[in-house]
């Protein structure tokens, strides 16, 4: 790879305990997003934190546009990290994209994972990415929401697009946006964070903006083109799907979909809060649930 | 949230800051709203000794005159800048997010590259412009150097596109920036071999690559990730046969086999080079569908032969690809041909291991499992390895240049898309209402002007489009598509504008020159828009428009309230969205605005001080001549609960009907006969509305007088005599007080509290008050504070529409903000806050302040004066002194809580013979049954049992309890861990505590209000008895006395809820007579009813009422089974 992976992806191991716990952040954030979750787990776990290669905190030079065209290279990164650290079994907490990565990783090497905890996951990441891409367009490039929508619908009608979106789904996203118009005007970050937590909004905006725009669009395209339906049955590792009761990006039905389709023993936890980033907005609540899920 | 220039400057070195100042100056000159990366590029290029320009010089191809290429670059930057929206402002345009993000990124990358300082210093002598270094390191804030800023800006897709248009690759420029120009000569030499990429002489493939590389620097032709994984599986020591799993698996399989057949290099290397792909997909299909095994046999022989050859030569192999596994699962009707095939393949695998690979794809694991169930050994025999495929992108090269993800990153300066089909339905209608000559002329003038302007725009557009397109040819081939799309957008915008103009002049014409329009026969179509059938169509129109532009919508329907009466019928459509009423209002508006000057506007024009103490009538007379053109419509934003009462709006204000009548009479002489025909329609509606408003309209506006208020209120809510009494007393007292001591403002005087049950009654009184005090029921802000954070009951009869409206609106806002927003919209209104006892803390706080200071604060600290409002808070709970009122009557058959849970189900009549106890008890008539136990508890035969309800009531109590919980605010950051814990585990404890504290709170609040008014429970039992009687007599009339009718209790609840909600007193009786009677008669005809047969009226669960009967929220027809 030509560079030290652990350095490049800012891998950190904190805490004292005999079990390993991987905290993998989602799209638009970096490992700092777990800051508020950490204290609860450091006494009993050795926590592995790392940044996805697309995160803003990673040197963008490391992002190889030829390599990261699907989610599998991200899985490889994860394996490489765990190998370098000499980890042979761990629990894995993944948010949004990382949840997808975790699912794929557990399919490829089931013995490596004792438990998967998926936060704000979606088998297709449909909603989050649509909104994220539009959010980037609107917020980062100062686009008008209408321009963004027009651009987006053209993108979907493109013959090269094979993401398996049906027009109806897009319409749903759009009409949700329409209804949320005022919230959108105020920016994507507050919307994704979902609650009036200014610090969380600021934090998310910071990490979101740290991403190089071309990289963030490239990655969202990758996620767009990903579809985990059909392979979920291959997961054998026990899973816990955590979802907030209201998440712009993930419709409530997704949890049920996971429950019925994931191959392993699966539990679903609904957090009584809103937003796509419960680790920023409701860390106490989330920690509770994660701890409970880990102990099962 | 753009950043101010000064804030941004502090991150920059002096040199960079001056460059930024240049950029800001560029933005200011063009009067743009923000300073973007493009401005920065423009500034950087124009700097006297420009690093960027210099880097470009080195990066560009020498085969082309540099002057020309730079000219192209300037043009393309200029064109892009032209597209940005401009705005007038005296201040410096702030730094846009994208530029600020670039600054931050460059800061980060500078931090990562401390070693390059050294490098720069080494070469700074070579660089004509010395880059400031070193000094910045020492300072606390890492100041961004120009070079890094330029590098970051080049990452911006907009910028790299602009460079691309001029034939520069931003990656080359970056390289040139990073690498000092030591080997200039040689690099130039080498570059000379490259063709100038922005010339039109490029082949597609090259241009593809160029475009691609422009966007993603450093990218080479990549091997598709999926293919790589597949080959990994095949190449592993064991050489497994990959079975691709996933939704995109089949596509990936196709891509892989195709590239194998094409012999593309790089996909399979080493041992796997030179594999031959043989597909048996078609043959399998033939076997399964036609039982034709012949071809398969031949094919497999061919495979064997090939394999033999490979064995002999010692290299190569065969990939046998069977396509979708589904094909093998599906059993043909012709018998089992699959099992022999599976075995045959297995034996082939056995023989030619390491030479033969099977390959296939399957949609999902489940299907594969099914396959395995059928052929348990197949995984081993075929040597299969499952490979999850999650990405559909089969190949990135070739696809990327066309990638629309990166396409058109440049905003369409100022253009906004409007649905192009917008005009078709609406404009067609529009033309049916002609304007008078004068207005028409003006309208046409304006359209002409607009068209000229429009064409100017489009010319400019073409110009701007043409310019870059010759430059662009070499780059991304998006030009065309964009052009077309733009023209479309332009067109549709034009048509939208024309449409708006039509609308405007129609309105003006009809308002100002009413009579000429009126006599035209065209009023006919406009009237015929009213019937229900048209509703859905309208809603679609509305949706289209709303997709386009919100502002257009508003201007389309500037005059909402007058239309109310006529279109209200559409509200009975169960699924009607708010937009229906909106649209039809818009349509009817023209007609109505002629008829009368609408009252709310009058109210608005009156003294702003304390308008509700004036008589609307007084001001009416003074203002009646004025056109309400400047009038901003009082948008009904009934939140959540408001939906329940949509039908109440049907009771129109008496003023209105009065006005209508007067005007009608006045006009009737002058208008044509056609209008008379129409007036029938109108009068029908008037009849409907007047039945629920005061019959003699002259008396009603005898306001200020307690009696008249009382009368107006009692008309709406006949059953709450005492409450009506107290409300009217309170209002007239306060009014009097204000009149005698003007200026004295006792806080809390304009506050009332409604306590006790009867939710509908309370709401109705509030809306009646709004009508009386402010002249319109629209002047009501209604919000249910308990509904925060919990979902409404699906299919409830109380919310046929706008189910989620509240949810959508409240996203990202606190309840206080929501209230404040509504208050701001309607400064003169009755504010109706339901269930204040369940308000969250923020609202409690706001209300506390509001009652003490007369100003309602929102969460941002802004305050809204509420002195011109009447605030009504309600609570269904009983205050401590009031306990006995409700607890007095314990055995209520139908408590309100149960009625509130009523669903809006379709009803159904079932015919059964002698159910359960009907054998023993030979009684006839009507009775109400619960579903579980058929015990009768109320009937026309005066048999009364009460325990039947109890079980279901218990259930209800449970849900009621849950609703009681104080809605938690969503901010969890401030919640300590323990608290969250408690929430999770000890629900009971925390709940009781919190509810106690909130109880204290609202009791305190209630003590400050002017008057507390207690409401009696609505006597559902009485109504139930009445209904049963009514039905029973109806039943006897239609199907005879010997047939018994059982009414499911749920239906009973539904009927009661409907009766409660309905405005007409006799609505339920009418419904029984018409709808139920008709259905019973039909049932009587359809079935041979014997004395033993029992008709059952049950709710058809899961099927929501599609068509409602007029005047009541009950189905317009009942299904027969």
Automatic annotation (TrEMBL), chain A:
Stored Pfam families: Abhydrolase_6
Entry protein name: Strigolactone esterase DAD2
Species of origin: Hibiscus syriacus
Family: Belongs to the AB hydrolase superfamily.
Start and end residues of each AB hydrolase-1 domain: 21-286
TrEMBL record, chain B:
Lineage start: Eukaryota, Viridiplantae, Streptophyta, Embryophyta, Tracheophyta
Organism annotation: Hibiscus syriacus
Protein name: Clp R domain-containing protein
Domain Clp R: 8-185
Pfam families: AAA_2, AAA_lid_SMAX1, Clp_N, NBD_SMAX1
One function term, GO molecular function aspect: ATP binding
Biased composition (Basic and acidic residues): 953-963
Family assignment from sequence similarity: Belongs to the ClpA/ClpB family.
Stretches the record annotates as Disordered: 942-963
Assigned keywords, A-Z: Repeat, Transcription, Transcription regulation
